[in-house]
Design goal:
- The protein is built from 7 helices and 7 strands; from the N terminus they run ββαβαβααβααβαβ.
- With 198 residues, the protein is of the alpha/beta class.
- The protein has a single domain, classed as Alpha-Beta Barrel (TIM Barrel), CATH 3.20.20.70.
- Helix 1 (49-57) packs parallel to helix 2 (79-93).
- The longest helix is centred in the middle third of the chain and has 15 residues, at 79-93.
- Pfam families: Radical_SAM.
- InterPro entries: Aldolase_TIM (IPR013785), Organic_radical-activating (IPR034457), rSAM (IPR007197), rSAM_sf (IPR058240), rSAM_TatD-assoc (IPR023821), rSAM_TatD-assoc_bac (IPR023822).
- Residues 6-198 form the Radical SAM core domain.
């Protein structure tokens, strides 16, 4: 089995599924098998909820105060595992929890999942990737029609129930696109983090 938990920079990450509803042109999955301390993040078979919970319970988090749900798949594609794992991380390990997501979890699960994740997730980082629907579809190649608007709606719903919500983009976007992303951030009141592309 691939690593369920791995260290990257100053955080511990939970790789709970390889399933994803996007096929991003820049996805690191197409470049290498692992990240950080993980030799491989490719699960031959996605871990069960119990396997993820056992990994968290048996992991030494000394020196770390946060668990980030982010691996080689979209965490909300394994929603029940995500919710159970975040609950254990908070209640049994006293960790802050963060969800890194593409923001299409409502579409994936056929309902508004924000009230559920708000109970166990302290922070949400949503990959904005592009400033408008056309460019977003070209870059992320999502499974769903109208994905950009659905992602924005998800972000807005998160902002209503979770204190720490951010969009993220990488600094390789054209300056014009970055400016448009900043404008969207200001109009929605959702912070924008510009990450360095590695």
């Amino acid at each position: 089995m691939a690593d369920i938990l791995y260290k990257y920079k100053d955080s511990v990450y939970a790789n709970i599924t390889n399933k994803c509803n996007c096929s991003c042109t820049f996805c690191i999955r197409s470049l290498k098998d692992g990240v950080g301390s993980a030799d491989t993040l490719w699960h031959q078979q996605n871990p069960t909820t119990d396997e993820v919970l056992n990994a968290i319970r048996n992991y030494d988090f000394e020196g770390f105060d946060e668990l980030v749900f982010c691996g080689y798949g979209e965490p909300t594609c394994a929603l029940e595992t995500l919710l159970a794992a975040a609950k254990v991380a908070k209640e049994e390990k006293n960790l802050r929890t963060r969800l890194n997501t593409n923001g299409l979890g409502n579409e994936e699960n056929g309902r508004n999942i924000v009230p559920e994740i708000a109970k166990v997730i302290d922070a949400v980082s949503i990959s904005l990737n592009a400033p408008d629907s056309k460019k977003y579809s070209e870059v992320t190649r999502p499974k769903y029609d109208g994905a950009f608007d659905k992602m924005v709606d998800f972000a807005t719903k998160c902002k209503e129930e979770i204190k720490d919500v951010k969009w993220s983009i990488v600094d390789v976007l054209p300056e014009e696109d970055i400016a448009k992303c900043k404008a969207l951030s200001e109009s929605t009141g959702i912070k924008l983090r510009i990450r360095h592309f590695t």
